[in-house]
Write a structure and sequence with these properties.
Helix Hairpins; elongated; 374 residues; 4-stranded antiparallel beta sheet; alpha+beta; Adenine-n6-DNA-methyltransferase TaqI, Chain A, domain 2
Length: 374
């Protein structure tokens, strides 16, 4: 008897093996809309979501939209109401004899990416999806499963919103702290002194130490995680033994100017290792609280000033130490730096806890999909 590993106890009937095209009322077709505006009453959907609006609509049925072509081919989401759809997106509909929410989860579990073909312009077709073999239970069981998984999605959505709000709160507090709209007081209740404003080369030196045997962990700078081991990012880079010997040492507490610092600021390293000589390593030569500059060097105001020093065009853009060294940088007392660093670190810890909860919930749902579907 074909049944899933995990099942609600009130259901016991066997699943039916069929294909999408044999479902009652099943249809799959490309959208037919090609013109859109920036405003209008009705949404205009593309392969990844709303891409515009129209004053009229072409469809009013609940449907699953599937990216048909391009880098997102195979990705999907569900819509309802009155809307239009671009011709690079497939619309999957069925009758009320099948729960569309259930089919969405079934498609997620199946993973349409495995059907995608082509390299220059990846593609998935409606004809391919029609022929996919599926096993489905009764409508009642479909509805129960879909409702349960929707509750899981809602929990993930709530956690994601909490994560976004905490991130926004941190950004707002950074703005107020680094513009000195908010000031901390010393432990004895007294006011801290005025912030110095000094050139960057009075705080950081250009650190280039290649005295190593090539066995240290290779590190890479990322805009979202700072400096991390290179094998933790989704980039496959091969380095010869000879080239690794030319790499620079990064010490814990150093900062890194990368080729993308003009977009995301300067990254902090919590690791000891080596990195490509294309990076500029900054080492403090004046007492600092690292956590203060870890955040200061990622503020929008600093990034804007840093980006003004960029030389080169397109992929050849870079920021030299010489250009960075002339920037004027705030330098509060180390005691005040430390208080600000601790405050922002406490927010980071809360953000990280929620991020872990989101990942755990996603993994839980992934496990449910594997066990609740055949």
């Amino acid at each position: 008897m074909a049944v899933p590993k995990l099942r609600f106890k009130e259901f016991g009937s066997e699943y039916i093996t069929t294909t999408f095209e044999k479902l009652e009322g099943f249809s799959i077709q490309s959208g037919k809309s090609d013109s859109k505006e920036d405003s209008g009453e009705f949404p205009f959907y593309g392969s990844t979501g709303v891409i515009g609006y129209k004053d009229s609509y072409d469809y009013c049925d609940e449907a699953i939209l599937i990216a048909r072509v391009g880098a997102n081919a195979g990705s999907l989401y569900q819509v309802k109401g009155k809307y239009s759809v671009s011709d690079n997106t497939l619309m999957l509909c069925t009758s009320d004899k099948t729960n569309l929410n259930y089919l969405r989860e079934l498609l997620i579990k199946f993973n349409l990416n495995q059907l995608v073909f082509g390299t220059g312009q990846p593609l998935v077709t409606g004809g391919m999806i029609k022929k996919v073999s599926i096993a489905i239970p009764s409508l009642g069981e479909q509805t129960k499963i879909a409702s349960f998984l929707s509750a899981v999605d809602e929990k993930i959505s709530q956690l994601t919103q909490k994560h976004e709000l905490l991130s926004q709160y941190k950004q707002g507090m950074m703005q107020k702290l680094f513009s000195q709209q908010i000031r901390f007081k010393a432990d004895d209740g007294s006011e801290f002194g005025e912030w110095e404003v000094i050139q960057a080369n009075q705080i950081f030196e250009n650190y280039s130490n290649k005295n190593h045997d090539g066995t240290l962990t290779i590190l890479a700078a990322t805009q979202d995680k700072g400096v991390v081991p290179r094998d933790e990012i989704d980039i496959d880079i091969k380095s010869s033994d000879a080239s690794v010997l030319s790499y620079k040492i990064i010490e814990k507490g150093n900062f890194v100017i990368s080729l993308r610092s003009f977009q995301g600021g300067i990254e902090y390293s919590n690791y000891h290792g080596i990195c490509s000589p294309a990076y500029t390593i900054l080492k403090s030569i004046k007492p600092i609280a690292s956590g203060f500059y870890k955040n200061y060097l990622k503020t929008n105001d600093f990034i804007q000033r840093l980006s003004a020093t960029v030389i080169g065009i397109r992929d050849g853009k870079q920021i030299s130490y010489q250009a960075f060294s002339t920037l004027m940088i705030d330098y509060p007392s180390v005691e005040e730096q430390t208080k600000i660093a601790y405050f922002l670190s406490a927010i980071d810890q809360k953000i990280e806890v929620v991020a872990q909860q989101i990942e755990q919930a996603k993994q839980w749902k992934k496990g449910l999909l594997q066990q609740m579907f055949i």
